[in-house]
Amino acid sequence: MDHVLQACLNGGRPVGSHPALPVSSAQLAADAVAVAERGVAHLHLHPRDLVGLEVLAGPEVATAVAVVRAAVPGVEIGVTTGAWIQPDPVRRAELVAGWAGLAAGRPDVASVNVHEDGWQGVCAALHRAGIGIELGVHDEAAARALVAQGPPPGTRRVLAEVRPGADPVPEAEALLRLLEPLGLPVLLHGEDATAWPVLGYAARLELDARIGLEDTLLRPDGTPATDNADLVGYAVRTLRSLGPR
Questions:
Q1: Domain interval for residue 82
Q2: Overall number of domains in the chain
């Protein structure tokens, strides 16, 4: 595949929400190997602590990233900086700044949601730490704000998300139209009910896409997915069947 297919392995889903949801570093690494065998070279994961809660603290981030990197060397590893994990924007930026010294446990990229307070400070901390930025845009207001502000240094791509409840294709079209002036690569994805319709639309436009248990627990036919590798297998087939001939 010429375009990016990112596997989003766990997200913020609670422990037990799916039998195969990877939580520990070892589980994330096992899933990373399985999806890499299906052609994935980009990962997005949410490091957890010992009880399965999402964290931004350096030791837990470093452990998760280092264990996954050892299992799939050469694969891009991204993490979250979600404000729901640490609502204080100053403290959030401080935690992210601490990732600079993580060595083998330093992520390659991190996602920053444009609608969250303090997103610019988090982006600046990532850039100083030598970590690439993925800008999360989940509605038209965020897209307009990003275009007005301009992408911060170190931005690699925009993650355009079509949320549940939206009409997938019209909402995707609206986001893409607003983001076009940025001239940045766009990874288009949905969540739950919009995940597969948006992936199909991304395939037809030859855009980057993603899939995994963060975005959906179901296969395209609505039956429960076995695990992340199962979802990625369906995504690869979709991208090949709807993408360029």
A1: 5-242
A2: 1
